[in-house]
């Protein structure tokens, strides 16, 4: 079966220990310390491989560990840095902390490569610790430990348009005739167990990416059947196309099918219903009479067109009405935000180095409290304060790192201004 989820253990390398040694040369009876520094442990890096489209590689290999840095040597020799461990994933993979479910990184858009776990720094050799009172230090600094984490990988396909509907209503057939995709097609339920993507080319530079989302069933939002596996692939799409069996070949009610699927979408993520929808009434060529077709279309239009959802009678097999459907979808895409749906970072991995980075809290001439230092500068570099989640993450960072406590010790009161690298905030408990 298509693999779009995986739980794996990742571990960065430990830094090499600093070395303890002393110069031992002829005619130099009391040589000083010459122990070298340890090498850096390997990072764990995730990188997008556009040749991959599933997470099947992680089905049998669950543990990934980078190598440790080499210990320092005699004669001030620096231990070798370990090679980084690069883990290749398909575009659209979201990396989450397994315990909390919070997003660590979304390998989409411009984010083609990201360091998820940094290797430990190498320890300093004893040559760094000689002083006027301690000329023969017999100790060196150990390397920093690596970091380890269980992560959940989730693949969410990247497409402009998602085809949704019950099994065997013709989604795969429609995708195959309008794009370059070649999904398996057969007349039984759950033929499609993985999403297929195809590029729809309308000519003159017009076109879009369409995904055939596997068949949904009632209860999908609770995980019935393969519900969650299917629903996560809809989250990035801009327009949803309901494909229904207008001929009721299997006795299905197309109106009830649309209602049921929309209920499942709402339970899974209410924001999905805010996206433009279109109804493709498929298999019109299989109706017994023209009058039957008119009745089905009349019922669909009466219920959904007042809600702004257009209904298109089509036959994916004969391509009847398909052209009109595609151009309508293309027009809808022009009305929506074209910014890719990227899942924002919610989880910060704590490093020894991060916690030891300094910062200062000072009072400016205008009375504002100024917080500066490498720890603040680094945090602001990867936090999007314009988003609600990003600002919530920022507030938790200030609290968990003790910065708020230090501000209160400095005498801050409600309504006072806090300034950080050009950003200003009013302080409230």
UniProtKB/TrEMBL annotation:
Residue span, OBG-type G domain: 159-334
Enzyme class: hydrolase
Domain Obg, first and last residues per copy: 1-158
Occurrences of domain OCT (ranges): 351-429
Domain of life: Bacteria
Residues engaged in binding GTP: 165-172, 190-194, 212-215, 282-285, 315-317
Compartments where located: Cytoplasm
Cofactors required: Mg(2+)
Keywords noted in UniProt: Cytoplasm, GTP-binding, Hydrolase, Magnesium, Metal-binding, Nucleotide-binding
EC number(s) from the headed UniProt entry: 3.6.5.-
The keyword Oxidoreductase is annotated on this UniProt entry: no
Main location: cytoplasm
Alphabetical list of CDD domains matching this protein: Obg (cd01898)
Binding-site residues for Mg(2+), renumbered to this chain: 172, 192
InterPro entries to which the protein is assigned, alphabetical: G_OBG (IPR031167), GTP-bd (IPR006073), GTP-bd_Obg/CgtA (IPR014100), GTP-bd_prot_GTP1/OBG_C_sf (IPR036346), GTP1-OBG_CS (IPR006074), GTP1_OBG_dom (IPR006169), GTP1_OBG_dom_sf (IPR036726), OBG_GTPase (IPR045086)
Function of the molecule: An essential GTPase which binds GTP, GDP and possibly (p)ppGpp with moderate affinity, with high nucleotide exchange rates and a fairly low GTP hydrolysis rate. Plays a role in control of the cell cycle, stress response, ribosome biogenesis and in those bacteria that undergo differentiation, in morphogenesis control.
Family: Belongs to the TRAFAC class OBG-HflX-like GTPase superfamily. OBG GTPase family.
Quaternary structure and interacting proteins, as annotated: Monomer.
Protein name: GTPase Obg
Source organism of the structure: Enterocloster alcoholdehydrogenati
Gene: obgE
């Amino acid at each position: 079966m298509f693999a779009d989820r995986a739980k794996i253990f990742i571990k960065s390398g430990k830094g090499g220990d600093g070395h303890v040694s002393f110069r031992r040369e002829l005619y130099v009876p009391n040589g000083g310390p010459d122990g070298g520094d340890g090498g850096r442990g390997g990072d764990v890096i995730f990188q997008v491989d556009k040749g991959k489209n599933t997470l099947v590689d992680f089905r049998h290999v669950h543990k990934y560990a980078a190598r440790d840095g080499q210990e320092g040597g005699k004669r001030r020799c620096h231990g070798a840095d370990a090679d980084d461990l690069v883990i290749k994933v398909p575009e659209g993979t979201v990396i989450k902390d397994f315990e909390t479910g919070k997003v660590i990184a979304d390998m989409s858009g411009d984010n083609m490569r990201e360091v998820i776990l940094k290797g430990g720094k190498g320890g300093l050799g004893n040559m760094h610790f000689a002083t006027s009172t301690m000329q023969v230090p017999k100790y060196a600094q150990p390397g920093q430990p690596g970091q380890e984490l269980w992560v959940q990988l989730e693949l969410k396909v990247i497409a402009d348009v998602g085809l949704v509907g019950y099994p065997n209503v013709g989604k795969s057939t429609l995708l195959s005739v309008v794009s370059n995709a070649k999904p398996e097609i057969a007349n039984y339920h759950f033929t499609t167990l993985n999403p297929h993507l195809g590029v729809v080319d309308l000519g003159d530079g017009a076109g879009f990416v369409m995904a055939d989302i596997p068949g949904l069933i009632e209860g999908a939002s609770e995980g019935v059947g393969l519900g969650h596996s299917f629903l996560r692939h809809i989250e990035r799409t801009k327009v949803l196309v309901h494909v229904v069996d207008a001929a009721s070949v299997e006795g299905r009610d197309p109106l009830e099918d649309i209602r049921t699927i929309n209920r499942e979408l709402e339970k899974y993520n209410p924001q999905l219903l805010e996206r433009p929808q279109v109804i493709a009434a498929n298999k019109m060529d299989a109706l017994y009479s023209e009058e039957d077709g008119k009745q089905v279309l009349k019922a669909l239009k009466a219920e959904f067109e007042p809600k702004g959802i257009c209904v298109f009678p089509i036959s994916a097999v004969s391509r009847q009405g398909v052209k009109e459907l595609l151009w309508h979808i293309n027009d809808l895409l022009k009305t929506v935000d074209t910014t890719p749906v990227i899942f924002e970072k919610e989880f910060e991995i704590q490093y020894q180095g991060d916690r030891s980075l300094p910062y200062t809290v000072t009072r400016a001439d205008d009375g504002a409290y100024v917080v500066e230092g490498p720890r603040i500068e680094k945090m602001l570099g990867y936090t999007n304060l314009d988003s609600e989640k990003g600002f919530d993450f920022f507030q938790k960072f200030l609290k968990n790192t003790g910065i708020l406590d230090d501000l209160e010790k400095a005498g801050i009161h409600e309504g006072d201004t806090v300034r950080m690298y050009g950003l200003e905030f009013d302080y409230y408990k």
